[in-house]
Prior knowledge:
This protein is α/β, with parallel strands linked by helices. It has two domains: about 1-240, P-loop containing nucleotide triphosphate hydrolases (Rossmann fold, 3-Layer(aba) Sandwich), CATH 3.40.50.300; about 250-315, Alpha-Beta Plaits, CATH 3.30.70. It has helices at about 20-30, 65-70, 90-100, 115-125, 130-145, 160-170, 190-205, 215-225, 240-250, 265-270, 295-305, 320-330, 335-339; strands spanning about 1-15, 35-50, 50-55, 80-85, 100-105, 175-180, 210-215, 225-230, 235-240, 250-260, 275-280, 285-290, 310-315. The strands form three sheets. A six-stranded mixed β-sheet has the order 5-6-7-3-8-9, sandwiched between helices. The longest helix is centred in the middle third of the chain and has 18 residues, at about 190-205.
Amino acid sequence: MALIETRGMTKVFRTPLKGPGLAGSVKHLFTRRFTDRVAVANVDLTIEAGEAVAYVGPNGAGKSTTIKMLTGILVPTSGEVHANGVVPHKQRIQNARNIGVVFGQRTQLWWDIPVRESLALLKEIHRIPQDRYEATLQSFNELLELGELLPVIGRRLSLGQRMRADLAAALLHDPKILYLDEPTIGLDISVKDRVRAFIKQLIAERGTTVMLTTHDLGDIEDICRRIVIIDEGRIIYDGDLQAVKDTFARERSMHFQLHHPPADPAAIAARVPGVKLVAGEKPEQLGVHFDRFEVSAADVVAAVMTEADVIDFHIDEPAIEDVIRKVYAGQLDLSAAEA
Length: 339
């Protein structure tokens, strides 16, 4: 059953066209001219309960506008929006009880009071029973290490600390839907890993539906199985993340550390046609590039071990990052992945 559903969702921003200075403003009072900018155009989107969906696109593509319509902050110009059976901009209070929202560049904490007090206020707003509130904080503390943050005043939190506290604040009332807008922006690697682990556990244990907008493609690969790509307000791809990688990132690289340089590298290539050999920084290093749908990793390993004495090897998986960059640059037709 769909938890989030939009049909023809469109948002148009109207901007007044004024001349410079006071004269321009006075003229606009009598001759009103406007320009319309379509931020989101006829978006049809269905997200099932328990799904984790990456919603990505270049700057200005319409990602944040979509999230704001789904949360009820913005009213669609046309089309329909439903989230857990309610229309977000019409049933704001009921919708707020169903959702949690984390904006990477904004906070829902009160700046001048300790985190503990901010969470206590949210507990009262959402009417959370005391025993459930304490149990929730305890579970959050295991992965987010929330205990050390509770006595700290909001404005004194570092970016990573604030993000951990904001996640707790957004999830305190156990919402069915979690919207994450650039949740790891500016965070260091260790904090990113902690935040990602927490979100993955949330999905696995609570069945929370997650919609993630991000430019950090590590977030996408770590958390989501489905990817929706939006550009100029329109969805240009909606499907399985692995299908995109299989279609547009088929090449794999294996790197070998050898006891001695191979006596005849050409013999390796002859054993597995279609591979490309690349010399390493040292003579004892060898790289092999291959299409995983034409050549198996096992065949590559067997060919190299037949011709050389292997100490160690590892394989590099493709990154979705390269695919998304090519999509943004207009170099890929994603209809091939949908076929």
